Structures are given as C-alpha cells and as structure tokens.
Amino acid sequence: LAQARRQSVIWMPYQECTGCLESLTRSFAPTVENLLFNFVSIDYQHTLQAAAGDQAIEALKVAMEENWGKYLLLVDGSIPLKDDGVYSVSHGQTHLESLREVAEGAAAIVSIGTCAAFGGVGAARPNPTGAVGVDQIITDKPILNVPGCPPLPEVMTGVLTSFLAFGALPEVDSLKRPKAFFGDTIHDRCYRRPFYDQGKFADTFDDEGARKGWCLYKLGCKGPITYNACASVKWNQGLSWPIQSGHGCIGCSEPNFWDKDSFYKPL
Ligand code: SF4
Ligand code: F3S
C-alpha cells in the first residue's frame, strides 16, 4: 500500500482569479500539505508547479497518458464560449478546447468555485466573453460543483478526501453540490438566527443593533437563500466568517449572485 500510486489530480485554471487555489492552501483538516504529499498527486496546476511553458504542457500530457480514464479533473474559472473561446487562452490553446481535451480522459470532474460551477463573475451582466460553467460544456462525465467565491477550503479538501475514500463523487443536490456541505442554508445554521426570529435587526452597520450582534437581514444578508457551510465550518481555521465579522452573507455560492440586485438591499 505504501507503494501504491497516489490518485492523479489534474487542475486546470481557466478564466479565474486564483482565489480558489489561495483558499485551498488554507485548509487545516486535512492540511493541503498532508493531502498533497500523502494522498493525491497534483500532476498539473500551473500556479503551484515548478515547471512552466513547454515543460508544464509536457507534464500535463504525460499525466493524462499515464492516468487516462482515471484522473480526477479539477477546474477553476469559467470558460468563455463567445467567438470560439478566444477570450481566454493558455499556451496558444483556448480554454474551451483545453477543457474538452482534458475532460475526455477524466474519471470525474470537480468544478471548483462559483465561476467553474455557474459562470461566476465572468458571466455577470453583460457577460462579454459568453462565460459559462463546466457542466454547460461537458455533459458526459460525472461532475461535482463546489461553489463559493472562493469555496471553503475544508469543503474542497473534504470532497477530495471523499473521492479517495469511496472512489466516487459524493451525493449531490439539484445543482450538483455535495449535500454534506450544501444541505442547509446559511440562515439555517446562523448564530444570529434567534435575533431574526425575535425581529431584532441592525438597520445600519454602526447602530445599536449592529453593536449588539443582531440579525443583518435588513442590511442585505442573503443567508436565507444561500446554501453553504460557512456558519458551521467557518473560515480561517474556524476562527470567524462573514456574518461573525459583522457583514451579511452576499450569497457567493449561489448561481448569478453578482446580478441578484444589490448586495446591501434586503431580499
Ligand atoms: Fe439569517 Fe443573515 Fe440574519 Fe444570520 S444574519 S439570521 S443568515 S438573515
Ligand atoms: Fe459566501 Fe455567504 Fe459564506 S458570502 S463566504 S456563502 S457567508
């Protein structure tokens, strides 16, 4: 077992900001070092890897050939469709072509972040590049969506660990999100919920209600319509999360959250 080959993971960054990768590196259970050195082999990730240019592409080709049909493909970033995808290109190849090529040999695909899952900020009005999420292009592979802008690190590592343990993607909801992490709304688990139930709301960010930690609904909190695990897993090694720091949830793990009218207007 000690000599067993680690699961090959190929991570393709497309029209993205690298925030999802930044988030992954903050995972504490499991830590990303533990995951990388002991359980998976990330065979391509152009921000993390030492190789660049032709060498990086060669490494990608070798990883695909050696693990054809078995590798797990991770994608972050949306994929532009307009004008044959010319608005997002790496190494002379559009990301549209790249995705089709790399997806063909994948056992399964995990769309990391709201952009890869639903189009995200790239697809926000007026969507100048015709950006879409992975499952709008690839329809013949198992796909899991792990949305969030960025996703919680422990949700990303949790999904990878689950794939390693069971050899398959976990149970999903109607938007292909793992139910274990996206089964409840932020509002369902929010520690400010008793104030909501009592009708105690902050009206401004610096009034008495805000200082007393009352519900942020009137300041535009989208917790009631947002499915994610922030209220229970939290951020920064369980230290805090948006609502605990005094700002309402902006619904960053939901489709089209950029276009759902102002972040600061009540539902
Ligand atoms: Fe719900 Fe937001 Fe109020 Fe928390 S702060 S109880 S998520 S509306
Ligand atoms: Fe995003 Fe809301 Fe969590 S804005 S980070 S889903 S609290």
The total strand number stands at: 9
**Largest sheet, order of strands side by side?**
2-1-3-7-9
* Oligomer status: single chain
Counting H and I runs of at least 4 residues, what is the number of helices? 11
Proportion of residues in extended strands: 5-15%
Q: Could you describe the largest sheet, including whether it forms a barrel?
A: 5 strands, parallel
CATH topology of the largest domain: Rossmann fold
Which range best describes the helical content: under 10%, 10-25%, 25-40%, 40-55%, 55-70% or over 70%?
A: 25-40%
CATH homolog superfamily of the largest domain: NADH:ubiquinone oxidoreductase-like, 20kDa subunit
Structural class: alpha/beta
What is the H/E string? EHHEHEEEEHEHEEHHHHHH
CATH architecture designation of the largest domain: 3-Layer(aba) Sandwich
The tally of structural domains comes to 2
Measure the end-to-end span: 53 Å
Q: Which molecules are bound in this entry?
A: iron/sulfur cluster, FE3-S4 cluster
Radius of gyration: 20 Å
Mean pLDDT: 94
List the helices and strands and how they pair.
Elements lengths: L6 E7 L5 H6 L7 H8 E5 L8 H14 L4 E6 L2 E2 L8 E2 L2 E2 H10 L1 E7 H6 L12 E2 L10 E4 L6 H14 L12 H4 L3 H4 L3 H6 L9 H4 L18 H4 L34
Parallel strand pairs: 1-2, 1-3, 3-7, 7-9
Antiparallel strand pairs: 4-8, 5-6
The structure holds iron/sulfur cluster (SF4) and FE3-S4 cluster (F3S).
Task: Briefly say what this structure is.
The protein is 30% helix and 14% strand.
